[in-house]
Prior knowledge:
By secondary structure, the protein is mainly alpha-helical. It has ten helices and no strands.
Amino acid sequence: xxxxxxxxxxxxxxxxxxxxxxxxxxxxxxxxxxxxxxxxxxxxxxxxxxxxxxxxxxxxxxxxxxxxxxxxxxxxxxxxxxxxxxxxxxxxxxxxxxxxxxxxxxxxxxxxxxxxxxxxxxxxxxxxxxxxxxxxxxxxxxxxxxxxxxxxxxxxxxxxxxxxxxxxxxxxxxxxxxxxxxxxxxxxxxxxxxxxxxxxxxxxxxxxxxxxxxx
Length: 215
């Protein structure tokens, strides 16, 4: 308990840092995932090819390697001076977007084909059909796997602590390097992650129940 009480500001800062990275990465992953899922089901071949390449490349690349590219390649070539937070959120968001894309695409495939055909018969474009007809119906199917994806994202955010970001893993490393009992440090860090993941799980259960009532 003394480890927590004596270093409460550090734990609080690490907790808020993990929340910030998780929230920013989740927002980026959600937007990119939906866009890439639209590309993957698009009737335009170049968009389908781009979506397939995006998912295949990111899902089969280790997350640590993406962090290395984000921190040691991107600033040198494209965006010098970018903050570690932005680089970490970008790497984690892009990686997670490939999993979000596949979840959304699976949800799109559950919508009866007749829905899209009816929309096209009314003169709606593909993207209008996707935005106004298909995606709203696919949401109910997509929410359960999304919960697992964002919980995994929260745990993956620990890698950001090794790249100059203040978050829970970084706090545990700093305290353990100072000689504090590693067992107690990991216990408090684990409890912090449990709080975040339980909150995410509860939020998605609430969304799922709300959508079931609206069905």
